[in-house]
Amino acid sequence: MKPWVLLLNVIIYGVVMPLPVLGGLRNKTFLVEQCWIQPLLQYCEKRCTKLHECLSPNHTCCWTFCGNICLDNEEPFKSMLNL
């Protein structure tokens, strides 16, 4: 095999192949906002995924003193009204 054919194959597989993999991460921001309230310790058990997403619906990933947690969008206001 001629050396330029081998070089062409290396360039194609080294540059073109990773492009679909990087396409999904290009538009994703990995910044996590601070929680809008100081949550109770019971909320620290619900952790975000490594991609800063929540598995439960109607939850938002935010950071607090105990790390990145999934906070229910409505629950903090319910608990503040009960105090």
Question: Summarize this, please?
Answer:
With 83 residues, the protein is of the alpha+beta class. It is 36% helix and 17% strand.
Helix content: 25-40%
Kindly name the structural category.
alpha+beta
Instruction: Describe the sheet with the most strands.
Output: 3 strands, mixed
Tell me the number of helical segments per DSSP (H or I, 4 or more residues long): 3
* Spatial extent as radius of gyration: 22 Å
From the N-terminal CA to the C-terminal CA, the straight-line distance is 78 Å
- N-to-C SSE series? HHEEEH
Average pLDDT confidence is 76
Shape: rod-shaped
Structure summary, number of beta strands: 3
Task: Enumerate the spans where pLDDT stays under 50 for 5 or more consecutive residues.
Answer: none
Task: Give the percentage of residues in beta strands.
Answer: 15-25%
Strand order of the largest sheet: 1-2-3
Protein name: WAP four-disulfide core domain 9
Organism: Panthera tigris altaica
Transmembrane segments: 6-25
Keywords: Membrane, Transmembrane, Transmembrane helix
Can you put this structure into words, describing what you see?
Keywords: Membrane, Transmembrane, Transmembrane helix. This is WAP four-disulfide core domain 9. It comes from Panthera tigris altaica. The chain crosses the membrane at residues 6-25. This protein has 83 residues and is α+β, with helices and mostly antiparallel strands. Helices cover 36% and strands 17% of the residues. The chain is built from three helices and three strands. A three-stranded mixed β-sheet has the order 1-2-3, with no helix packed on it. The longest helix is centred in the first third of the chain and has 14 residues, at 3-16. The model has no long low-confidence stretch (mean pLDDT 76).
